[in-house]
Amino acid sequence: MGCAASVPDKSSGRSGGLNNLENGGPPDAKNLRVKLVLLGDSGVGKSCIVLRFVRGQFDPTSKVTVGASFLSQTIALQDSTTVKFEIWDTAGQERYAALAPLYYRGAAVAVIVYDITSPESFTKAQYWVKELQKHGSPDIVMALVGNKADLQDSREVPAQDGIDYAEKNGMFFIETSAKTADNINQLFQEIAKRLPRPSVPDS
Amino acid sequence: MSTSSSSSISSDDEPNSNPNPIDDELSLASVTLNESNGNGSVNVNENENENNRQDGGEITWGRKNSEVEVEAPSSPSSSGYAGERGSSETTNSRIEDDEIQQVNNDDGFVDEVNHSRASSWVPGKRHVDEDDASISWRKRKKHFFILSNSGKPIYSRYGDEHKLAGFSATLQAIISFVENEGDHVKLVRAGNHQVVFLVKGPIYLVCISCTEEPYESLKGQLELIYGQMILILTKSLNRCFEKNPKFDMTPLLGGTDVVFSSLIHSFSWNPATFLHAYTCLPLAYATRQAAGAILQDVAESGVLFALLMCKNKVISLVGAQKASLHPDDMLLLSNFVMSSESFRTSECFSPICLPRYNPMAFLYAYVHYFDDDTYLMLLTTSSDAFYHLKDCRIRIEMVLLKSNVLSEVQRSLLEGGMRVEDLPLDPLPRSSISHRMSQQRLLTDSPERFRESSVGIGGPAGLWNFIYRSIYMDQYVSSEFSSPINSHQQQKRLYRAYQKLYSSMHEKGIGPHRTQFRRDENYVLLCWVTPDFELYAAFDPLADKALAIKTCNRVCQWVKDVENEIFLQGASPFSCATDKTEFAVLMLESYL
């Protein structure tokens, strides 16, 4: 078993989309390459999470993502495995919704983000979960992320709602704050731990 | 923006205020088509053009190819474009009319005064709290609206679209009223205000302006706004309206306010918006060639268009095989990329549509910024080409670094383009064409420097600025702004004067004109149109006519001498016009 991005399957015509099929090389259990896609309503902080994770920055001025941005970041796990995340940070605007398959096709990980102060964004997150269950890779690792956890006073989505929904759908759940950097690294560490490892390198 | 400050600034800047007494203005700025119809007293004067201005509001719409003017009675509505409020607001119209009057007294430079005073323009939508009931909203000098044919607001330059639903419905009513008569409304004049309409299938675009720009210019601006929307959504948006006429399009344009506001801002500083041509960053021929060669290389590997740009200026561009890029598409694309901050953060892959190339289909754009100003755009038809384009970019970046293109670009950006002060005294000998412009600039310190400029400051013979547009190359070059055209207001005013000149030279039915010499209290404007190029030049208002003509000939010769550095050669199949340009040079005297 393998995941589409870390174990490129050149014979598979199904995946298509934005998958880096050319530079795959032989699968390596110690150095994983993983395609990760972030989905969620506009303004929930997807880009902020990525920029906090990749560059350690936080820019409070909102910069609307156009199409999708591509960034990558490698992390090392305690078992001396490295995981290189190739991250597609998608635009949350409605006009790009139809293009989402372009970015999530073949993704090994989907991070679905909502804003804990916005119930609408939580509803939108559930839409994305269903969409991925229908059209995503069958063995995709999904994480549900409640962002803006620093805004406790304006919270409108109880943490328990997130926990319950994630549990029901076999997802990993975490609340983060890109602003304070709370739980950002943990999010990616946890994802890395949950990745299916290629057990037998096929060459 | 506070009422008192903007008015006082405008009257300082604009001593030539409208001489009409206030009472005349009140009756002038007061037409709505609904009411004129309701009164049953619309007179159609097919033969009287331009005669009605002093009589009251007038409505002009196109009937087939001719323009028809309709004299309409004054209505009690206050601002001339607050149609739906109609007579219900007569009680407070007095105050508002005074407010509007103050605005009408200057000639179009209020709306960005406060922002430009604060040095630089701020992107994004402003004054979202306003709606059509706000006095400040009514005072804005130039409104742009996009609405659907069912009257749903899609975009408004000022104010919240949703709060403007009633106003949008009124605009829609005006358009459909005329359409029901089997006609199309193009323009309504109401006092100092022009209301320009553009219908694009289910999309209506409206500009309400008191900037005195020509109808053709405002219509061109609406066309660009429509093109910008198509670039974001493609023309397939029409299908949404076929399925559901009441479709609300605002969510589809979410987050694009900055794109539109930056386009609208460019109407006042970027000549590409009315010249329909692009401009290049001045670079040594070899430098541009090096950039072009690597772009050509990647274009052959399945890239449809490869563009390397610095701000709004082209460094080099290449199209695959026979694909050619329309200058308006380049303008809209670079506006889209430059106004969307996220492109600067990291490499992006985004669907975009080039309205002039194929308005129905998305292309995919790979965008990468090499530095703060310089960016690469690779366009492809293939939605999964990202990694290939990323590899292309890495190859391009290596070549650009190796051949110092990026540092040359930064240098050129610092040095700026052609300056009127540097206009050479004598045409350079043929052998020195390959000299860099910067070398020429050294000439300005030599004793031979042209010193005829006894009037005013700027270049020789009082030359303040010029724009040269090469017709075959689809390119233009404009001189840098220099004293005394220093402030944004002055630059904007000059561009509006150029725009007026441009549209008067291209007026259908009257033209084509070859030359125009116009003197007013602000400038001497000289325009020269040949089949190969157009020259627009602004001089000190006291400039001598014969000297100005001589200077224009020099400018043409100068452009010709440095054309390898200021134009992208070989980008268009027709770019062999060089010799014709030379033929035309030195013939201006014979026309004037």
Secondary structure blueprint with pairings:
The complex is a heterodimer of chains A (203) and B (592).
Chain A: E1 31-40, H1 46-55, E2 68-76, E3 82-90, H2 100-104, E4 109-115, H3 119-135, E5 141-147, H4 159-168, E6 172-175, H5 184-194
Parallel strand pairs in A: 1-3, 1-4, 4-5, 5-6
Antiparallel strand pairs in A: 2-3
Chain B: H1 3-13, H2 22-28, H3 33-39, E1 43-45, E2 58-63, E3 66-71, H4 93-104, H5 113-117, H6 135-139, E4 142-148, E5 153-156, H7 165-180, E6 184-190, E7 193-200, E8 203-209, H8 215-233, H9 237-243, H10 257-266, H11 272-275, H12 285-299, E9 305-310, E10 313-319, H13 327-339, H14 342-345, E11 348-352, E12 363-369, E13 374-380, H15 386-402, H16 405-415, H17 437-443, E14 463-470, E15 475-478, H18 488-505, E16 515-519, E17 524-529, E18 533-539, H19 545-561, H20 563-566, H21 578-584, H22 588-591
Antiparallel strand pairs in B: 1-3, 2-3, 2-6, 4-5, 4-8, 6-7, 7-8, 9-10, 9-13, 11-12, 12-13, 14-15, 14-18, 16-17, 17-18
Number of helices of chain A: 5
Looking at the chains present, what oligomeric state does this protein adopt?
heterodimer
Largest sheet of chain A: 6 strands, mixed
Q: What is the beta-strand fraction of chain B? A: 15-25%
Report how far the terminal alpha carbons of chain A are from each other: 14 Å
State the separation between the terminal residues of chain B, measured CA to CA: 46 Å
The assigned structural class of chain A equals alpha/beta
Chain pair sharing the greatest interface: A-B, 28 and 27 residues
> How many extended strands of chain B?
18
Any low-confidence stretches of chain B, pLDDT <50, length ≥5? 1-119, 430-436, 438-456, 573-586
Rg of chain B over CA atoms, rounded to whole Å, is 25 Å
User: Would you identify the regions of chain A where 5 or more consecutive residues have pLDDT less than 50?
Assistant: 1-16
The topology string of helices and strands of chain A comes to EHEEHEHEHEH
Main sheet characteristics of chain B: 8 strands, antiparallel
The proportion of strand residues of chain A reads: 15-25%
Question: Numbering strands along the chain, what is their spatial order in the largest sheet of chain A?
Answer: 2-3-1-4-5-6
Strand order of the largest sheet of chain B: 1-3-2-6-7-8-4-5
Write down the CATH topology of chain A: Rossmann fold
Shape of chain B: globular
Query: What is the top-level CATH class of chain A?
Result: Alpha Beta
**Helix proportion of chain A:** 25-40%
Keywords (chain A): Nucleotide-binding
Region (Disordered) (chain A): 1-24
Pfam families (chain A): Ras (PF00071)
GO molecular function, one term (chain A): GTPase activity
